[in-house]
Design brief:
The chain has about 350 residues and is mainly β. It contains 3 helices and 17 strands.
Length: about 350
């Protein structure tokens, strides 16, 4: 059975159960974005199933590698490079007179685009597991090119490594409903502190609204849970790395979905798997630009103390050429201070 089918079966099994308040801090979604160059800077709403009741912070470093080549009669694109992204995030519980719980959250990242060193490893990875490698073996390893051409004109030509601060995400989350049926409503705004020309931002404001929930039950000595949610996002004009002018016809309305399963013991450890999806973002004849993206993530988390945990995992694209071929990440998670 494929990993996606196994996860969906577990989703069905656990949906009728519920998560107790004591286990809510265990049920946290992975912070997964589409790190492909064309999707960077799109501020899709972060879908978390619960509101925190303690101040929480995290530092996550992701290493992403992608090779994409596609050409049609009037368009062509090459994305060949490696991204190192370090993101800092904070979640702060908020006092409210309403019956539910609320929090404020925010995050910002530092991006470095370059040649990288993972190309040969990824070719071998795909060979070992019989996965498509998208033509990687037909070109030079560890090169860097972000290029887009239309009507025989090279409109985007990034061949030099670049770094910079990304866009700032801020938002609020409110959890209502019952213990058996919790519902988290979230609104997020992404501010243009990054730079579209360097593929670190969007140069415009993005706004997203999402809802998410979870369900779980005791299994043996641990706790098993599912979480799920969806969002709708308005994306501002993205110049797609060009210095001036509208290069590609962009779709302003983008939807995203998330579903995950986990098992663990609160305050000790957890393992989880997650699916992330977003709808297409451009009108184009090129598959890397017009298609929807689906990513599958797996991670493990171990607690070093009550307040500190270490998390590591990887992300694999389920639809090749739309999101990075391979992503690995490691996170340091902190929580425990009362607001």
């Amino acid at each position: 059975m494929q990993p996606r089918c196994k996860m969906l079966s577990l989703l069905t099994l656990l949906t009728l159960c519920h998560t107790t308040h004591a286990d809510e801090q265990l049920v946290t979604a992975l912070d997964i974005d589409n790190l492909s160059p064309q999707a960077l800077g799109f501020g899709l709403v972060e879908l978390q199933p619960h509101v925190v009741d303690e101040v929480s912070a995290s530092v996550q470093h992701s290493l992403s590698n992608q090779y994409v080549f596609d050409r049609k009669a009037t368009e062509g694109v090459v994305f060949d490079g490696e991204l190192n992204l370090t993101r800092f995030a904070i979640r702060y519980p908020l006092a409210t007179a309403l019956p539910g719980q609320a929090e404020l959250f925010g995050s910002i990242g530092y991006y470095h685009h370059g040649e990288g060193v993972m190309d040969d490893f990824i070719v071998n990875w795909h060979d070992w597991f019989g996965l498509p490698e998208g033509g990687r073996s037909d070109r030079n390893s560890d090169a860097f090119r972000y290029q887009y051409a239309r009507d025989n004109q090279l409109l985007i030509d990034n061949t030099s490594p670049d770094s910079g601060i990304g866009d700032l995400r801020i938002g609020a989350r409110y959890e209502l409903g019952s213990e058996a049926w919790p519902l988290a409503v979230q609104m997020q705004v992404e501010l243009p502190t990054g730079d579209a020309d360097s593929f670190t931002g969007n140069d415009e404001i993005d706004v997203g609204l999402g809802v998410s929930s979870s369900a779980g039950t005791k299994v043996g000595s641990g706790h098993a849970a599912v979480y799920y949610g969806g969002g709708l996002n308005y994306i501002g004009l993205n110049r797609f790395g060009a210095e001036s002018g509208k290069i590609i016809d962009q779709l302003h309305w983008v939807g995203n979905l998330r579903a995950g399963v986990l098992y663990g013991q609160p305050g000790e450890w957890r393992v989880q798997a997650q699916l992330d999806y977003h709808s297409k973002q451009f009108r184009s004849e090129l598959e890397p630009l017009y298609a929807n993206a689906t990513q599958f993530s797996v991670s493990g988390t171990g607690y070093l103390s009550r307040q500190l945990a270490l998390q590591a995992g990887f992300v694999e694209d389920l639809r090749t050429r739309i999101s990075p071929d391979f992503v690995v990440f490691v996170s340091l998670l902190w929580s425990g201070a009362d607001a």
